[in-house]
Write a structure and sequence with these properties.
Blueprint lengths: L1 H17 L12 E4 L5 E6 L9 E7 L8 E3 L5 E3 L11 E4 L5 E5 L2 E2 L4 E8 L2 E8 L13 E5 L9 E2 L1 E2 L3 E8 L2 E10 L3 H7 L29 H10 L18 H13 L27 H9 L19 H18 L24 H9 L22 H12 L4
Parallel strand pairs: 7-15
Antiparallel strand pairs: 1-14, 2-3, 2-12, 3-6, 4-5, 7-8, 9-10, 10-11, 11-13, 14-15
Helix pairs in contact: 3-8, 4-6, 4-8, 6-7, 6-8
């Protein structure tokens, strides 16, 4: 009967493969490959349900087409999951359960022995590996393994998780082929992790850029605004991405512009931007009080730097046009001069530029005045005579325009 059983097993496997159902592979047969850590963010997210427990989520930036998330603040760091606002297929990845991630130790896949979970402790979330209750699990009575922590709880419910030393992300692979499943990986054996627990993070790593003399991004070398981008990062009101790029031709949203302007003003000597520590009411009907940008939008609105639309909305995630950006920068320039006790008149520092495509546009006077005031308004890519007021404001020109504003001596 043994040859017959072998033949039947082989036939069954062949039939499963023929109809697209591969036989189950033992977890220990999987290997893993390294990934770029900066392409991912680990998040304690609102879990919902009756108990309202937080859910562990991993977001991946697969392409530069659109940002999948943004970060703000520290202790804790708040995550804005931007991928929830657009069709992120092929652009972002999102893993929310054990189908998308598991633990891997130096001696192999540990997903069947420990399950990832978030536990609340002293006002923050701790990422742990809880031993499964399977009778065959030799670690089922062990204490949880601590993998990371959040250093607080973000007001919007999405809080960044910082991994403890020794832990990193890798990707599952099989037979040399990378798969979608992610591992939270430690090179120590599972037994040693259970016994020692490993070191923990005592302070979250800073995400603030340093202030080097020259700041280089691999994607701005040939950009016409490379020097201004370097200066913008040096001032500290905008930063590059963790993968070493600046993404100069990405569009800017209205709330991102507000954030840049407020940070740039606050970085100047003799100007102190007193943001509210807590926003108790929605600044606009579509800007919730717990949104990452709410405090900055509220301050900008109260100080005449921005305004909303007639329907009462601010449309924070809407891409801002070059003309709209000039309107905001003019008001920011007036606020800057007022704060320095210099009145609000923007005295020209040079001759106004004559643009070929702004006549009759609602922002024509603003664009013209800012071309004369420290050269803030200039043609697209510093070439030709077109301003293209209705096109999206890109990160490279936005950084440049704000640099010209804050460095203006007038």
């Amino acid at each position: 009967m043994k040859p017959l059983r072998l033949a039947l097993a082989a036939a069954t496997a062949a039939t499963l493969t023929l109809f697209g159902v591969a036989p189950r592979v033992n977890a220990q047969a999987f290997d893993n490959v390294e990934v770029t850590q900066e392409d991912f963010v680990l998040v304690a997210a609102p879990g919902g349900g009756l108990l309202g427990r937080p859910q562990f989520m991993i977001i991946e930036q697969k392409s530069d087409a659109q940002l999948c998330w943004s970060e703000s603040g520290s202790n804790p760091t708040q995550i804005e999951p931007l991928l929830l606002n657009f069709d992120f297929s092929g652009i972002c990845g999102r893993s929310t359960d054990s189908n998308g991630y598991s633990i891997r130790a130096g001696d192999g896949d540990a997903g069947s022995r420990f399950n990832l979970d978030l536990q609340e402790e002293d006002g923050e979330y701790i990422l742990v590996g809880r031993p499964s209750s399977f009778p065959t699990n030799p670690f089922r009575s062990s204490d949880p393994i601590r993998l990371g922590r959040t250093f607080g709880q973000a007001s919007n419910g999405f809080t960044k998780v910082f991994l403890n030393p020794g832990w990193r992300l890798t990707r599952r692979s099989f037979d040399g082929r990378a798969l979608g499943h992610l591992y939270l990986t430690n090179d120590a054996t599972l037994a040693s992790l259970v016994e020692g627990g490993g070191p923990i993070v005592t302070e979250p790593p800073t995400t603030e850029p340093e202030t080097p003399t020259t700041i280089a991004f691999r994607d701005v070398t040939n950009d016409v605004y490379a020097n201004q981008i370097s200066r913008a990062v040096e001032i500290g009101f905008i930063a590059g991405f963790q993968d070493g790029t600046f993404r100069p031709r990405n569009s800017l949203t209205r709330e991102q512009l507000v954030s840049m302007v407020i940070e740039a003003l606050d970085a100047q000597e003799n100007i102190s931007v007193a943001l509210p520590s807590q926003v108790t009411a929605n600044p606009f009907s579509d800007v919730a009080s717990n949104r990452w940008s709410a405090a900055k939008i509220q301050f900008a609105s109260q100080n005449g730097i921005v305004s909303g639309y007639e329907d009462g909305n601010f449309r924070p995630a809407q891409e801002v046009t070059r003309a709209e950006m000039m309107a905001v920068l003019r008001r920011a320039a007036e606020y800057r001069k007022r704060s320095l006790g210099q009145g609000t008149a923007l005295t020209p520092t040079q001759q106004a530029f004559t643009f070929s495509d702004t006549q009759g546009h609602w922002a024509a006077p603003v664009i013209s005045s800012l071309s004369a005031y420290c050269g803030i308004a200039t043609p697209v890519n510093e070439s030709g005579t077109a301003f293209v007021p209705n096109s999206d404001a890109l990160r490279n020109y936005a950084a440049t325009a704000v640099v010209r504003l804050v460095d203006c001596a007038n």
